[in-house]
C-alpha cells in the first residue's frame, strides 16, 4: 500500500505541475520555485507532515518535499540555536541532497560532454 500511496501522491504533484505548464503562462522555473515555496508554507502551517506521512517518497522526493525539509530544518535549528538557526537550519537539513545533486551533475557532465543542442 505504501507504493500505491507514493505513486498517487507523486502523481498528483506532477499532474498539478503539468496543468500549470499547460494552462498558465508560468515558466517551468517559476513553477519549480512555487513548489518549493508551497512546501515551506504547507510545512509552516502543519499540513505537509501528514501528507509526507501518507505519501512517503511521493511527497518527500519532489520539490515540495525539499521545501518541507528546509522549513523543518529551520524549525529545529531555531529551537536549538535561536535566531542563528534561521540562517543555518535549512542548509544543514538539506546539505546531503544539495551535495548529491552537485556531485551527480559534475559526474554526468564529465561523462556526457554537455553542450548546446544545435
UniProtKB/TrEMBL annotation:
Regions that span the bilayer: 29-48, 83-112
Gene that encodes it: spoVAC1
Instruction: Return the protein name.
Output: Stage V sporulation protein AE
Q: Name one Pfam family in it.
A: SpoVAC_SpoVAEB
Q: What is the lineage of its organism?
A: Bacteria, Bacillati, Bacillota, Clostridia, Eubacteriales
Keywords noted in UniProt: Membrane, Transmembrane, Transmembrane helix
Amino acid at each position: 500500500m505504501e507504493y500505491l500511496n507514493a505513486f498517487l501522491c507523486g502523481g498528483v504533484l506532477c499532474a498539478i505541475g503539468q496543468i500549470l505548464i499547460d494552462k498558465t503562462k508560468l515558466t517551468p522555473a517559476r513553477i519549480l520555485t512555487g513548489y518549493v515555496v508551497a512546501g515551506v508554507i504547507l510545512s509552516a502551517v502543519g499540513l505537509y507532515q501528514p501528507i509526507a506521512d501518507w505519501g512517503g517518497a511521493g511527497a518527500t522526493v519532489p520539490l515540495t518535499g525539499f521545501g518541507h525539509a528546509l522549513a523543518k530544518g529551520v524549525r529545529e535549528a531555531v529551537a536549538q540555536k535561536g535566531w542563528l538557526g534561521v540562517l543555518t537550519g535549512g542548509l544543514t537539513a538539506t546539505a546531503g541532497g544539495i551535495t548529491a545533486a552537485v556531485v551527480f551533475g559534475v559526474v554526468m557532465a564529465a561523462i556526457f560532454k554537455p553542450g548546446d543542442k544545435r
